[in-house]
Amino acid sequence: MLRIGYLLPEGFQVMALATQAVFEFANLAARERVYSVENYSLAGGEVLTSAGTRVLSRPLSARTAVDTWLVAGTRDPVDAGAAPALVRALGRAAGRARRTAGLCTGAFLLADAGLLDQRRATTHWAWTDALQQRHPSIQVEPDRIFITDGAFWTSAGMTAELDLALGLVEKDLGSDAAASVARGLVMPQRRSGGQSQHSELLRLAPKSDRIQQALEYARAHLAAPLGVEQLAEVAHLSPRQFSRVFAAETGQSPAKAVEQLRLESARLMVERSRHPLEVVARETGFRDARHLREVFLRGFGVPPQVVRRAARGTD
């Protein structure tokens, strides 16, 4: 039996507990109790959730032995911080486990414990920049649903925690078992796309419907030229008005925002398709494969070939 331990900081996001259903359904699919699930906290007892309810937990000690740790996050991992004692305890506990996963902003706890140094990781899109600034040695990848790097797993926000848990089951029990769990929970076995499907427009956060409409048009027509004049026409503004309002509402120029939308779309194609880079470049609005490479290096620090190999788990 594989013991799954949930490490719950005070005020943890209650969504983390939803992932326990993945292991419940895995046991049903296997027709035996493959997984046992327990909640832990530093001191044990009741732990407050983000919803204001409380759950019972066991105390974390040097004798605690689990196969896999799932570490819940909090609403504000930067301002709230984590108790140094909890961070130290996590570092010791992870050393005794086969693998450790950070759910959503739980990645901050793993990072603070030094578990993600020199590794790839992700977290909720709203906190990726903060994670990168706080821990420069981590290769934070904002557009991933979840990432595995050695014994450490991290997920994007909220519902991506379910994807990570399902990935753990697939790793342990195989694709057929994971497919059965996915059917039982009415969720995709492998979700297409990344956080950028939702995050980039949210990150830009336009305040007016006109700018929102222009951005949605741009995302749907990335292969088109998408100059200021064209986007301004969609927004029913003059080019000068559009540029001024766009910058005021998003903090970026229209050209920079379009490039970012193109870059994230290109990354998805690179990771999830076998299209040649020339095709990827053409479909996402870059001049050619060379231009695509230049923007990847500027945006991600690596060329598209490296991103593709990493997504496939090959060297």
Structure overview:
The protein has 315 residues and is α/β, with parallel strands linked by helices. It is built from 14 helices and ten strands. The chain has helices spanning 20-30, 84-96, 106-112, 128-134, 160-173, 175-185, 196-204, 209-220, 228-235, 239-250, 254-272, 277-284, 289-300, 304-312; strands spanning 2-7, 35-41, 45-48, 54-59, 68-71, 99-102, 120-121, 139-140, 146-149, 152-155. Strands 3-4-2-1-5-6-10-9 form an eight-stranded mixed beta sheet, with helices on both faces. Strand 5, helix 2 (84-96) and strand 6 (99-102) form a beta-alpha-beta unit. Helix 1 runs parallel beside helix 5. The protein is elongated, with a radius of gyration of 21 Å. The model has no long low-confidence stretch (mean pLDDT 89).
List the topology elements.
Blueprint: E1 2-7, H1 20-30, E2 35-41, E3 45-48, E4 54-59, E5 68-71, H2 84-96, E6 99-102, H3 106-112, E7 120-121, H4 128-134, E8 139-140, E9 146-149, E10 152-155, H5 160-173, H6 175-185, H7 196-204, H8 209-220, H9 228-235, H10 239-250, H11 254-272, H12 277-284, H13 289-300, H14 304-312
Parallel strand pairs: 1-2, 1-5, 2-4, 5-6, 6-10, 7-8
Antiparallel strand pairs: 3-4, 9-10
Helix pairs in contact: 1-5, 1-6, 5-6, 7-11, 8-9, 9-10, 11-12, 11-13, 11-14
